Amino acid sequence: MNIASHLATSRPRAWLFRLVLFSLVWWLLTDGATASWPVAVPVILIATLLSVRLMPALSWSVPGMLLFVPYFLWHSMRGGVDVARRAMHPQLPISPVLFDYRFRLPPGLPRVFMANIVSLLPGTLSVEIDSEILRVHVLDEAGDTRQELALLENRLAAIFGLTLSFVDSEGQH
Amino acid sequence: MSFTDILTVLLLLAGASFFLAGTVGLLRFPDVYTRLHALTKADNLGLGLMLAGLALQAESWTVVARLLLIWVLILLASSSVAHLVVRTAQQKGIRPWKR
Amino acid sequence: MDAVYLAVALFLLLTLVAGLWRVLRGPTAADRMLAAQLFGTTAVACVLLLAQLYQRPSLRDVALVFALLAAVAAVAFVRRAWREKS
After folding, report:
1. Structural domain of B81
2. For A78, which of A84, A120, A151, A165 is 20 to 30 Å away at the CA?
């Protein structure tokens, strides 16, 4: 695909956002060294071009993301303390189990994002994404995994500006 | 010691204890799946709390942003590793340990 | 404060030494890899503590490179070493 037609089809907001993001990262990595800008400008442009080419523009909401950060930190903390307690306990009170969760999120990036977050939260680990199912390895079967995952999914849906229905066959895009 | 210093010490100690718990989990947990649980905990929480403690002492905002960038990179690595290792373990037919 | 940074860094090194037990025991290559992955994160934390202790901001760049390499090393391991050797 040539660049001109790609520019026309992709959304300018995604371009702008990624341009700013990569510039910010460069600025951080080089500590704002102005001497590096002759190198920086082409590199940032190429990075932006590649990223828009490889990862399609995706709508996501800033408030949804901002609300998700404290949620993620709190659940990391809660899960982490629980897993740490189990690891240190003399009797090692763990009872791992595989759990199948049916996605309500649409296929593509939102599902991959969810699988990664599930892996990062202590106590759960994504095993595989199998069409409509997210298989999760849970460190201890006590606790309502289904409900926890459903709540997490709601939060992620808010980031991507989606509304979830319980009926899978209804197109939710 | 200022209030910020005390907070830093607490955060560093909390972070260190998650590194300890992660290591203990890595040594005691029975299979590769459960050991991955120990790993993500040390990565996510241990490093996160430590970096938060160090960020309080940072001399400028760029340092804070760099520490944040390091954390995000490690999180990205951690979840990708977890995914790849688990998938390969599945393909090799390694069954999760059951009590 | 300097004593705290040093003590925490030393403590992290001790956990790293303990983690070597997992490298020794295995049993699979992946178990050893997980220990190595944890060492990478521990090293990042240690280097950042030392950057603060000795007031050497350049050490933060070292930590950044460690963080970047952590992902590459693990992906390379799973794709090459563990797949091919059954």
Report:
1. 3-91
2. A165
What's the pLDDT tens digit per position in A4-59? 444 444 577 788 888 999 998 888 888 777 888 888 999 999 999 998 888 777 77
Tell me whether A94 touches chain B (CB under 8 Å).
yes
Tell me the two tokens of residue A147.
């409900």
Domain presence at residue B52: yes
Residue B68 scores a pLDDT above 70: yes
Helix ranges (DSSP H) in B29-60? 32-41, 47-55
Counting residues of chain A whose pLDDT is more than 70, the rounded percentage is: 88
- Six token digits for residue B84: 């790849």
Sheet order of strands, A124-130 included: A97-102, A133-138, A124-130
Mean pLDDT over all residues of chain B?
A: 90
Residues of chain B numbered 18-47 and touching chain A (CB < 8 Å): 18, 21-22, 24-25, 28-29, 33-34, 36-38, 40-41, 44-45
Phi, psi dihedrals of residue A33, rounded to the nearest 5°: -65, 115
In chain B, the number of structural domains is: 1
C6 contacts in chain B (CB < 8 Å): none
Give residue limits of the domains in chain A: 3-54, 62-159
Does residue B97 lie in a domain region?
no
Cα-trace Rg, chain A: 20
User: What residues of A are in contact with residue B34 (Cβ under 8 Å)?
Assistant: 94, 96, 139
Sort B8 into a burial class: Cβ within 10 Å, 0-12 / 13-18 / 19+. Answer: buried
Would residue B46 count as lying in a domain?
yes
Question: Which pLDDT band holds residue C36 (cuts at 50, 70, 90)?
Answer: confident
Task: Decide if C59 contacts C51 (C-beta within 8 A).
Answer: yes
| pLDDT per position as a tens digit, C57-68 | 889 999 999 888
Residue B57 has φ and ψ, to the nearest 5°, of -95, 0
The encoded tokens of residue B56 equal 């309080």
Residue B72: what are its φ and ψ, rounded to 5°? -60, -40
Q: Which helix (H) or strand (E) holds A134?
A: strand A133-138
**Cβ–Cβ below 8 Å for B81 and C31:** no
Chain B: residue nearest C83 by CA?
B88
CB pair distance less than 8 Å for B37 and A128: no
